[in-house]
Amino acid sequence: MVLADLGRRIRNAIGKLGQATIINEEELNAMLKEVCAALLESDVNIRLVKQLRENVKTQINFDEMAGGVNKRRLIQRCVFSELVKLVDPGVKPFQPTKGKPNVIMFVGLQGSGKTTTCTKLAYYYQKKGWKTCLICADTFRAGAFDQLKQNATKARIPFYGSYTEMDPVVIAAEGVEKFRNDGFEIIIVDTSGRHKQEASLFEEMLQVSNAVDPDNVIFVMDASIGQACEAQAKAFSDTVDVASVIITKLDSHAKGGGALSAVAATKSPVIFIGTGEHIDDFEPFRVKPFVQKLLGMGDIEGLVDKVNELGLEENEELIERLKHGQFTLRDMYEQFQNIMKMGPFSQIMVSV
Q: Which residue numbers delimit the SRP54-type proteins GTP-binding domain (predicted)?
């Protein structure tokens, strides 16, 4: 079950309770059964689903509930808080420091979208005024450097790699040293894709980590592989100190529940989610707004952030002209340009 269907199923299950204050335990159990079934079909780990069910039942005691309480709203609030706990390990995510080099190393499975995600992250920080760059330390996959080179060129991001050097440790160390000396602030190292059965590649990943001493290790997780995510996430976390998670392919075609529940295996926060192939299909992950959107509550906070990024209040000339009732065609053109900067309109509408 894809995430859009999961949200709809949970909303429908809660909606069946109606607005009435007369809700008994039998109706609560039926609602929880449907919510849990939806979560299981979306590949959320059965252990976590069982915990969510028990926690909701513990919080709602009909015998001790005061008369006139809107039980439906209380149940919805309990389900919301438990879904938040499901995807929030309670760990503060890494924040890069402006004005100094921040080395970020990417690890993950083959085909999880690491190289594309590296470019998306570099582009995201570049738009915010950071000096970003990319290093291709993937010598295992044919065409990896060509892909990174093409992506980086398109996004106008400096990059480093080699067609002749076969040792990823050497490439990573040289690239990081070069960009440190050049004063870059976000240095992203892309490594070879691997899985937990490949001991030699895991050893190589550890060597790259030791060579570049990353400030943040990001595990890129493919939302479409389901519950296999958890075992793989644990294997990566046991080898290197995974500090953050990015979930890719979290669009309408991916289940995503397995990836979300695998966050518990790494005990690391999800920092971004990829929702498509384009460089703009990438957004910061905030737990509460994500669950709000899942339950159809909207994400006004996210919309406000998008508007704030435009820096409209800094345009004092426009504000002064508007005060005097002046609005030219050029002003209208600039406002259309600002709307375009907010990204695809579908992303804006889903926040409302």
A: 269-282
